[in-house]
Structures are given as C-alpha cells and as structure tokens.
Amino acid sequence: MNRKQIRGVYLVTDRPLCIHHSLEEVVRLAALGGVSFVQLREKETDSRTFLELAKHLKKILKPFSIPLLINDRLDICLAAEAEGVHLGQTDLPWWEARKLLGEKAIIGLSLETKEDYFSLIQTHPKPELDYLAVSPVFDTDTKTNTKEAWGLTGVTWLKKQTNLPIVAIGGIKESNAADVIQAGANSLAVVSAICSAKDPKLATENLSKKIHSVV
C-alpha cells in the first residue's frame, strides 16, 4: 500500500464495547459506512480464538478491499494472512516484523511520548513504517496504560517532525474529529465511537464526513 493512502476512519475493535451488535456485525456495518482500516485488538482472549476472529473478519472485509491489521501479534497476522500489524513500544521490534511480513505489509507503530519519536529516528532516520500512531490524543477509558495525552498541540508537533502519515487515537469522537485532522492527523483511530454506536454504519459515515470537511 502506498503510504500516502493512510487516511480516513480507522476502527480499532473492542468486543466488550460492542454493546448493541456483535463484533462481526460492527465490522460489517463499519465497512458499509466506508471505514478505511480495521485493527483487531484482543488483549484477553486465547490465541486460537484470536486467530478464528481474525480469519472471520478477513472474510467480512475482503469484498470491501479494506485492510485488516492485527494488534501486537505477528503470529496471528501471519496465520490469518492479514494485511498488516500494529505494534506498541514493548512489542516485537517493527524492523523484525518488516523482515518477516515483507515490504507490502502495513506496519504501524504507537508513540506514547516525544522521546519515543526521538528514539525511533536516532536508530532509524528513515523508518520503513507505514504510519505513526499518536497515543493517546485525549484521555480515554479504552487506553488506561498510556502516558500523558498528546493533545492537539502534540499532533501538530509530530506532523512537523515526520513525513510519515499520522494516525491519531484516544478519545476521538465526532465532536472533535475535525480538530484532530486540522491539527495534522491523516487518519482517526476510534474504538467506542463505532463499537458502542447503535448504528456503526452511520457513526462511520459521520466521522468520515468530518475528516473530508477538513482534507
């Protein structure tokens, strides 16, 4: 995938937050609503269930040509033949993931602090990553183990530092979506704004409209 195409609404799944629909139905409705990416995040489940979910979501998304990314787990990504992986600061090093997944895979890396960014460019001035994720932009209940929120000024700061696309995550919803894009994000990663919506399709459409109102 061309790195410049990292944009739009990025759904990060959370099964406990899927209160009106099953995970699979949320993903299907989000796909109908025009979501650009889906990241399967499973922090508690066993590996076999994780893999089965990944394969199921892959089938749902295939007709829409929407990439499925796997959170943290390179083994699940490979076994499910997903399009890529999202990695945190304590996960498998992204350069090792690139070796195993190849050039075509989508690989994103979370940055929790400015120091994370400086460490990245000190060791890899031109990292072979597809995007950097600012995490979290705002304080949120879905990401409880992260550092201080970046805020809009943090998004703008990172935009000035890198040519890589920026995915913003954390506390993003329809009311602040346009502000985050205006600050410099290319894509908005959301969890509860879609997973907990009564109408995930409409929620995705509304978020997308906010993005395109700025871009």
TrEMBL record:
Chain positions recorded as 4-amino-2-methyl-5-(diphosphooxymethyl)pyrimidine binding sites: Q39, L40, R41, E42, K43, N71, S110, K143
Keywords per UniProt: Magnesium, Metal-binding, Thiamine biosynthesis, Transferase
Cofactor: Mg(2+)
Entry's cofactor comment: Binds 1 Mg(2+) ion per subunit.
Family: Belongs to the thiamine-phosphate synthase family.
Family matches, as HAMAP family: TMP_synthase
Entry protein name: Thiamine-phosphate synthase
Lineage start: Bacteria, Pseudomonadati, Spirochaetota, Spirochaetia, Leptospirales
Chain's gene name: thiE
